[in-house]
């Protein structure tokens, strides 16, 4: 299936096509601008692939909403997420990456070269494509949750747990991810509350056992989060405890950090007509490579990583994608 009929701007029978700007030919088009995208750009530019990067709606990706990053190599004193992304961007530009604002709004991977449209008006014809659009953490949708993002609310215990040593934290979620986050935080924090809206955990038996055997984790079954409280940073959370269908009680606990562990949504909807994904939406790559089922289309970062989801692993896979792209193009000559 093609999302657009033709790239001929003179086609008066197709109003959308008639509005398109002239198509631009590129050797390597990178979609997304987080650690994976920027690292792919650095390597691709150094290989003289003249990459063009389309940044997307959130330039820099999820790390732009993160305050302190303490676990990325090369920053011994730590760095904020936005500063680190600006550093990676500057490095990519130094080697000649053409970085542009915009969002890829349609793709056609049915044949090479590939056809893509940015912002519904700018066509590109790309010999290769690197997809680095990431995954978006799911949140509860609370107003207070949005207010405290980066100030006590996090969706990554591995990223931010270090800042809550010997403090009290809460994790919301009932699956394996929530159980893993809770047990990880239990090794750092004084107390971990695991908030579960159901009367049971959806996690595997092994993970449930780990949680139950960790003394500083307290599981709060049948509790829903009503509001995260605090002034400038998180200091507490208000829960609703269900005692029966018509019997609810408000519960308040003091915490220093609130971790959301209800899953991620890979930003892959745009590509699903062509690119194979798993049941959740993560792009499938050939193990040990960044190659997708479409020769010439590669995937890097959280869009294909449901396990680690770290900036450094995303950067590593961005390197892989650029090297795979370079070798693919060399084989075509």
How is the secondary structure organized here?
Blueprint: H1 15-18, E1 24-31, H2 35-46, E2 52-54, E3 68-69, E4 79-80, H3 81-94, E5 98-100, E6 104-108, E7 114-118, E8 122-131, E9 135-137, H4 143-147, E10 153-154, H5 157-160, E11 168-172, H6 176-186, E12 191-196, H7 205-212, E13 217-221, E14 223-230, E15 234-244, E16 247-254, E17 257-260, E18 264-266, E19 297-299, H8 311-332
Commentary on this structure:
It is a single chain. The protein is α/β, with parallel strands linked by helices and 333 residues long. The chain folds into 2 domains: 15-136 and 264-332, FAD/NAD(P)-binding domain (3-Layer(bba) Sandwich), CATH 3.50.50.60; 139-260, FAD/NAD(P)-binding domain, CATH 3.50.50.60. The chain contains 8 helices and 19 strands. The strands form 5 sheets. Strands 1, 2, 5, 6, 7, 8 and 19 form a 7-stranded mixed β-sheet that branches. β6 and β7 form a beta hairpin. α2 runs parallel beside α3 (81-94) and α6 (176-186) packs parallel to α7. It is elongated, with a radius of gyration of 22 Å. The two termini are 28 Å apart.
């Amino acid at each position: 299936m093609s999302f657009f009929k033709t790239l001929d701007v003179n086609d008066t029978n197709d109003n959308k096509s008639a509005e398109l700007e002239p198509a631009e030919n590129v050797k390597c088009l990178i979609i997304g601008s987080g650690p994976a995208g920027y690292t792919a750009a650095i390597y691709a530019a150094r290989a003289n692939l003249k990459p063009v990067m389309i940044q997307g709606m959130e330039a820099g990706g999820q790390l732009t909403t993160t305050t302190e990053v303490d676990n990325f190599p090369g920053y011994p004193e730590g760095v904020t997420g936005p500063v680190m992304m600006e550093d990676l961007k500057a490095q990519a530009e130094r080697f000649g990456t053409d970085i542009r604002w915009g969002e890829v709004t349609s793709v056609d991977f049915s044949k090479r070269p590939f056809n893509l449209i940015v912002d519904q008006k700018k066509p590109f014809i790309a010999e290769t494509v690197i997809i680095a659009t990431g995954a978006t953490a799911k949140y509860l949708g609370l107003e207070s949750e949005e207010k405290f993002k980066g100030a006590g609310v996090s969706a990554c215990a591995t990223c931010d747990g270090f800042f809550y040593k010997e403090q009290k934290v809460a994790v919301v979620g009932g699956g394996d991810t929530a159980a893993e986050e809770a047990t990880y935080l239990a090794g750092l924090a004084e107390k971990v509350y695991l908030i579960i809206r159901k009367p049971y955990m959806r996690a595997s038996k092994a993970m449930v056992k780990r949680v139950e055997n960790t003394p500083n984790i307290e599981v709060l079954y049948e509790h829903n989060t009503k509001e995260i409280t605090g002034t400038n940073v998180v200091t507490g959370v208000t829960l609703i405890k269900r005692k029966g269908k018509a019997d609810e009680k408000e519960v308040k606990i003091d915490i220093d950090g609130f971790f959301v562990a209800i899953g991620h949504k890979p930003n892959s909807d745009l590509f699903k007509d062509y690119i194979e994904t798993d049941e959740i939406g993560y792009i499938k790559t050939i193990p040990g490579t960044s190659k997708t089922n479409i020769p010439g289309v590669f995937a890097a970062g959280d869009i294909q990583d449901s396990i680690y989801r770290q900036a450094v692993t995303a950067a590593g896979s961005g390197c892989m994608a650029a090297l795979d792209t370079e070798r693919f193009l060399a084989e075509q000559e």
